[in-house]
Specification:
The complex is a heterodimer of chains A (250) and B (610). Chain A has helices at residues 41-48, 71-78, 96-101, 110-113, 120-132, 148-160, 178-194, 206-212, 235-242; strands spanning 2-10, 16-25, 30-35, 56-61, 64-65, 81-84, 166-170, 198-202, 215-220, 223-228. Chain A is globular. Chain A is α/β, with parallel strands linked by helices and 250 residues long. Chain A is 34% helix and 24% strand. The chains are: A alpha/beta (250), B alpha+beta (610). The interface between A and B is large, with 44 and 30 residues. The structure holds adenosine-5'-triphosphate and magnesium ion (MG).
Chain lengths: 250, 610
Amino acid sequence: MLQIRNLTKVYDSGVVALDDVSFDIPDGQFLAVIGLSGSGKSTLLRCINRLIEPTSGQILWDGVDLVSLSPEEMRRMRRKIGMIFQHFNLVNRSRVLTNVLAGRLGYLNPAFSLINHFPKEDIQKAILQLERVGIADKANVRADELSGGQQQRVGIARALMQDPSILLADEPVASLDPVLAHSIMKYLELINQEDKVTVICSLHFLDLVHRYSDYVVALNQGKLVFEGGPKKINDAKFKEIYGKDAERVG
Amino acid sequence: MQEKKPNVWKSVTLGVAVLLGVLVYAYGAEVTRVNLSELQSERRQESLVRVLRAIFRPDLIEYDQVLEPRVAPIYVPCPAGGLPGDMSVSQDGSHITVTPACGAPGDVVHVQGFNFAPNVEGPLRFVPGSDPENPVALGQLIANTDAQGNFSMDFTLPNRESEDVQYIRVTMRQNEGLPYFTQNARDTWDRIVETVFMALLATTIGTILAIPISFTAARNLMRPVRSPIASIALNILGWAAGIYLAYQLTLWIGDFTRSYVTVLPLALASAVLIPIIANLAIRWAIPVEDEVNPPLALRVTRGAVIFAVIVLGIYAFYALAGAMSSLGPQLAARFSGVAFLGNFLFRMGQILTLLVPTIAALLGGGALGGMLARIGQQATERLPNGAVKTMNLVLGGLVGAVIFGLLGSAAEWLYQIGNPVSTLWIPAAVGAAGGVLLALLTQPKDTLPVGTALYFVIRTILNALRSIEALVMAIVFVIAVGIGPFAGMMALALHTVVSLAKLYSEQVESIADGPMEAVQATGANRLQTIIYAVVPQIIPPYIAYTLYRWDINVRMSTIIGFVGGGGIGFLLQQNINLLNYRGASTQMVAIAIVVATLDYISSVVRERYT
Ligand SMILES: Nc1ncnc2c1ncn2[C@@H]1O[C@H](COP(=O)(O)OP(=O)(O)OP(=O)(O)O)[C@@H](O)[C@H]1O
Ligand SMILES: [Mg+2]
């Protein structure tokens, strides 16, 4: 159970990206975060693993407040929180296998990173994860030689290497065409259902929200303006989330 | 539409600007003494032509020569009683004739040569005195034979009057055998090899040192580095103590082992065996997995094992250095053909002996500093605010006193003031006050931006050093280590470090953040993030900049000899000073070839790896 309590983020520039946001995420939920561009979705996801330091508020995970952890304790905690990104964020010049193995770094003694050493089990595990997302044959290819959909699958494999309990996905399909978008979303669904991983996924398209998510939170200018099942987003709610002039597409 | 009004002010400003420009350039021409008429003067043009001709005939190869001197008698002036009867020269084989056989000074006589080898040349001279083999000879002319081996030319008699017979002499020179390189060419070869290796060593050493420095000079890596006061203070104290302790320990081990390392089999055996033992011990002592709070007893044992491995390792390095130093000369004596390999071994051994304490000191500083910083960090996190505040006050004051005390001692060493109150106690007190003040003004658990502070310090030092030309650095090193390629190499290496560190760090600053963010999100620590997300991104620009620097170093090393830094510049300068332009030309050609070749090679490498 992840509980967000009064979470606020004010950037140095003065922008209030999150404004007193509170909601709960039960274990195993597939949560969709929606909202206009600039409404604070990325900020919310990055506050959960503290890539961005919240200004105030709490993030309780099974009762432990992530915000009050020391940097070293937070680093250990991050191992259980996988993350995938809109632009995949792979290390382009490294091999696919190395990119996937990087998901294991938190569990290893940093001294061994100096000599680029990974235990055999981790290498086997990495190949297994690549098989799972269907690109085991690309293990030794440079990451930037893959197509966008393949790169995102590498990103998923990297996150799976962490044995995560939570998976943060920041617009994972926004750079992909609709067909690929569904194939990536299906992997997330699989991870959610088979591995019982809590998925927190920001999305732009409501059809994807309806198709994959159990629960939806909506942000507008940093404020929580809606939470509930995806079916509850009717036209009135939609205008509340996206503004009066918005039109539904798709 | 906007109406265009004539703007008086604008025109006036333009006029003034043009006037100012004219003044600036006029003054510039004055101070640089632009003088084209000097270029046109006959004297200048003559010497220019002479130098140019010499440059286009580099002093590269020569032949053994056979000399064929032939003389013909001549009287200056004509004897009053007419020419003596017997003036004939042998008409067999090669010979010369002079007509007429006498004349007043300044008269022109006709000299003809017959039956020489075809197409050879040699000086045509007037030999004063009555000895035809007199080495003193007058004139500038060169006689060239035609395809038949004959020549014919006019000769102006010099002002050397005598009643006795004198001679006109031609000394035909003929090349014999195969050409060989002149002494100048061989010297040039030696020096150009020296030059290339000077550049190579300087680039290698400079690159190795510049890489770690470049990370600390990159804003994006350093900005997130923040620590609480106690941690910073303990880190600095740890560095100071670690450097001192490790240095002393290493020297002590060195003294202790000195008598053993000269026993070659023992030294060799320990140089081989110790790494194996160390490897096994380290495998046990450093777990692959990242463990949370292992039991204290295990941690202490591991620490002890690692310490033992380090002591053994230092000994092994000394043993290796000793083995190399004693093996090298033996090899060099036994196999004279590859003596340089033996010498190299010896030299590496010596360098290793010198480097071990320094490297150990740095590692010791890093280890102790890191350890204490961690303790400070944890103490700050766990202790209550009041205790942390007290700790900050004490440690802040202590570290301030140490830093300023050290700075004061440095000033004492430089200026020899000889007054410990003003160079040690007052600075220490000021530093302590500063540290205490800092601790008072900050909240107990606040973190300070040490990374940013370090970034500014390092950037400032780099910028300051970078503005000093390598040639100037070479002068300093010539004073420090004496004239020769070593001084030049050190100067180039230092300049390489500062300029590459700057260029590299700019590359680090321009990498994509995404991969760093992603690797950090997996729970990797800072070191791992740098190795897996930063390093792969910077490899291509690092290679490109290293090659670029290698080009510069080759170019620089060709002139660093001008200030005594070794390499081909020394020879070039010598020949220019001796007005030996043909010799200097050889060096210039060599420089051109080397620079062009290396430029080409580096462009090929750059294309392949980036
Ligand atoms: N590093 C930053 N510094 C200052 N302001 C920022 C920073 N990052 C984001 N912001 C601001 O915070 C607000 C929320 O940004 P955020 O990236 O969380 O929105 P988002 O919902 O993810 O938008 P998008 O759909 O475009 O990704 C925006 O107004 C943005 O301009
Ligand atoms: Mg976003």
